[in-house]
């Protein structure tokens, strides 16, 4: 209980203060643009107009030569903390390729850092912060997207890890995987799972979930929110927002500052200027829009638990628990 209260206070400090002062207290750093996988439709490589005529190996070689050093990150984080930054989101490419930066960020900001990883490189167990691992489906679908044998490696790395929330990107043809993911991971120690949609680039909505499949996904997500209250870390309200799409100014800029892999501040989210914001399927703007427009929806036990339950012990659940 004490830990949960401490986390709630952290969140009030990070987002409440940003709301009052109009000064973001969470900074997102693309700590590397390199990656050890080659997923199709990845916005990092596919949405950037500068990369249109380059293959991924060329991109990765080029960006690797311009990343910030650990010394530079140390100076940067010190400066950011002095400016009022209280929380970091580390992203990539694959952020665990810069474990030196992850470890330093943890020493500096403690549990108020987070990241999302493809799960191939295990994050040392003494780094006690919550993070997300990407899962695109059951073993066959996940490996079809990410490469043969990848699912098994992730499962071995993380099935007994309380720090992990599975972050599941639904794309055209994979919405039948919602239940498969739950079946695969329900009896493990991970904190739970949340689902979102692939955001397409402007002018080509074909890789994302549309039409009848989208309606099916909506029914499925509402169903699993009810059926797996201690595993599916979403609420009905969050699911509804996911299907409403982005109607107004995206709230991510109000609460977060964004920096690319060279440490340059950018004025769009990391999906870049070519992302089709009207079909944005990301989940972070939804939490932030709840915070800015529907804050009273946060006064709900399930939502508070999603945001604040400590990730250092197994959360109690039984298969199919209602
Ligand atoms: C770009 S990856 C970076 C972190 C790490 N490499 C990983 O795969 O988790 C972050 C998340 O974005 C998702 N993603 C990739 N392309 C996307 C797109 N076009 N729209 C929405 N999410 C996307 C991935 O599935 C992953 O869950
Ligand atoms: S692992 Fe992450 S960053 Fe790498 S290609 Fe896949 S989605 Fe993109
Ligand atoms: S709506 Fe926001 S989070 Fe989504 S792609 Fe656009 S700027 Fe990024």
Task: Give keywords.
TIM Barrel, 322 residues, eight-stranded mixed beta sheet, binds S-adenosylmethionine, alpha/beta, 8 strands
What does this structure look like?
The protein has 322 residues and is α/β, with parallel strands linked by helices. It is 41% helix and 12% strand. The chain has 13 helices and eight strands. It has helices at residues 2-21, 43-46, 56-64, 70-83, 99-109, 139-146, 150-158, 177-185, 211-227, 236-244, 252-255, 284-293, 301-308, and strands spanning 26-30, 87-91, 113-117, 131-134, 164-170, 192-197, 256-259, 265-266. The chain has an eight-stranded mixed sheet. A hairpin with a 5-residue loop joins strand 7 and strand 8. Helix 1 packs across helix 13 (301-308). The chain is globular and about 50 Å long. The two termini are 23 Å apart. The site of one iron/sulfur cluster (SF4) has 12 residues, from loops.
In one word, what is the shape?
Answer: globular
- Please state roughly what percent of the residues sit in beta strands, choosing from under 5%, 5-15%, 15-25%, 25-35%, 35-45% or over 45%: 5-15%
CATH architecture: Alpha-Beta Barrel
Kindly state the mean pLDDT as a whole number? 93
How many E strands?
8
Number of helices: 13
Arrangement of strands in the largest sheet:
6-5-4-3-2-1-7-8
Please write the string of helix (H) and strand (E) elements.
HEHHHEHEEHHEHEHHHEEHH
State the share of residues found in helices, binned by percent: 40-55%
**CATH topology title:** TIM Barrel
In terms of quaternary structure, what is this? Answer: single chain
Ions, cofactors, ligands: which are bound?
Answer: S-adenosylmethionine, iron/sulfur cluster
- How many distinct folded domains? 1
Radius of gyration: 19 Å
* Biggest β-sheet strands, sense, barrel: 8 strands, mixed
The SS-based structural class is alpha/beta
Q: Ends: how far apart?
A: 23 Å
Low-confidence stretches: none
The CATH class designation is: Alpha Beta
